[in-house]
Design a protein that fits this description.
Number of domains: 2
Largest sheet: 4 strands, antiparallel
Structural class: alpha+beta
Radius of gyration: 37 Å
Order of helices and strands: EEEEEEEHHHEE
CATH class of the largest domain: Mainly Beta
Number of strands: 9
CATH architecture of the largest domain: Sandwich
Helix content: 25-40%
Shape: rod-shaped
Number of helices: 3
Distance between the termini: 83 Å
Strand content: 25-35%
Length: 214
């Protein structure tokens, strides 16, 4: 009898399931926490594979003075997932101690100051223009009545208020033009767009990540 012994079939080892944090360089290390299922990940573990069990996982990104963000990941057996962690938007209103907290708003710019002054000057010009027109109009009306009555003295007395009204109206028109010039001459700051290209290298993954910030 010939007995043939076959070697026992060896089970193929399973690839580990892992998560890799790819953190952008502009994220500060101080005041930033990356949590996986509520557990804070150490700084020296960022960028390295973190072995996890297959299934659902909760990832929280907490950056000081920034909006917190949460991610739900459903990993399957043997998957190596790379999570790109970019800088979240600023908290609004900014908490105490964070940039932009001063008076709850950003400091006024030169352009904003010129426009504000323009609106004030223009508003005063409109008021002066209206007042001057009213004074001059009343003077004309009273002079017409005096002329109809043949009262020369009353007619001559309206010359001063008429001239005063014209002066007020002229000053108002000049102030209105000056205010409009201030409003439209304020320098505007064009939006600055910063582009960043970051390579992404991970097991079974690779490429480039393009990001922009306005």
């Amino acid at each position: 009898m010939l007995l043939v012994l076959s070697p026992a079939a060896q089970a193929e080892p399973r690839r580990p399931t892992a998560l890799i944090f790819h953190v952008f360089p502009d994220i500060p290390r101080e005041g930033t926490e990356l949590r996986v299922d509520g557990e804070v990940q150490a700084l020296d573990g960022w960028g390295k594979p973190l072995e996890l069990s297959p299934g659902a996982h909760q990832v929280d990104v907490i950056v000081r003075c920034r909006e917190p963000s949460s991610h739900r990941l459903d990993l399957f057996q043997g998957q190596v997932h790379t999570l790109l962690v970019s800088l979240p938007p600023l908290l609004k209103p900014a908490p105490r101690g964070c940039p932009g907290h001063e008076a709850g708003a950003s400091p006024p710019t030169r352009a904003g100051g010129l426009r504000t002054a323009g609106f004030i000057v223009g508003g005063a010009g409109i008021a002066s223009l209206m007042l001057g027109g009213l004074v001059a109009g009343l003077a004309v009306s009273h002079a017409r009545d005096a002329s109809e009555r043949g009262d020369l003295q009353a007619f001559n007395e309206q010359r001063t208020p008429y001239a005063t009204g014209l002066v007020l109206a002229g000053l108002g028109a000049a102030a209105l033009i000056a205010g409009a010039a201030l409003v439209f001459s304020g320098p505007s700051s064009p939006p600055r767009t910063a582009w960043q290209v970051t390579p992404v290298v991970a097991p079974h993954q690779g490429g480039m990540w393009l990001s922009a910030r306005w």
